[in-house]
Amino acid sequence: MENIKAAIEAHLDDLTKPRGSLGKLETYCVKMAEIQGRVPPKLEKKGIYVFAGDHGIAAEGVSLYPQEVSRQMVLNILAGGAGINALAGGTGWDVTLVDAGVIGEDFPPDNEIKPVCSFVRARIGSGCRNSFKEDALAPEETERALARGKALAQDAADRGLDMTAIGDLGIGNTSTAAAMLVAAGFNIDDMVDRGTGIDDAMLKHKLQVIQGAVKSRNPPKDGRSILQKLGSFDFAMMAGFILGLEGKGIACVLDGFPVSAAAYMAYMINPKVRDWLFAGHLSKVAGHKPLLEHMGLDPIVNLDMRLGEGTGAVIGGHIVELGVRAAREMASFSQGRVSDSEKAEKKY
Length: 348
What we know:
It is built from 13 helices and six strands. By secondary structure, it is of the alpha/beta class.
């Protein structure tokens, strides 16, 4: 790894520009080279997996939106009308929608819509249980969901993807994310905010529900147990996807708060996952910043976004791609076209 780091830094320093002048684009390029084990890295194929699932805790009235919105938004993505469709199309990402447990046994009916993007039926159940009242998943369901996430990581490798991203979709998922992180040791006041714009009374209720769920379930501080007792099918699949990328030479860009919470569960299981993760953006959701800081991930952009679906991830990943393109396409001083500086440059 040190040899790769030294080689990519030497490559970047030989490009026809002042040393270090591309700033963080060079930092991202170095990380891509380390992930891929090649100099310069390449980024020819990018794919985002949007994990959709329903959350039993939504029954406690923690969101302004009814639970059927999850299904409606899945259909919107499959029809090509969602934010992620627009932004992924504009930045060159292939979209795969994963049904990781949306409510409804036959979802969506094959004759209901003709998807414009890839669609994977990975459901294990029709929404997880209400963690305020009982464990969200059974232990065997948790393991199956982790395994299905890992299988999708293998799918990414089979497709020849150089970079992946993860998006989320599901009413109640910020409450699930907050509950998991509070159980992991984060302060509840830092992890819970207004989400979709709830008022003071609803915020107080949301805090009480999350606190009650964590107290009732009381999982040990390990990623698998927290996913089982307080998580969901989609969160476990996202965590499994991240874990499954180990050794595959594929980068993964995280979206906002729910995706990053799932990544934190993967991080608790295997801290090495940080080596192939990028934080696509800093969400406007309050808990996202301390969560990323704890994992040592620096968000690529901060655009005050909080849509989800992977929208921030595809923007951040596109910026990483620009750094890789510079490393691959710029001329070098050693090619003799431009004179290098006569004195050693100081990097800032």
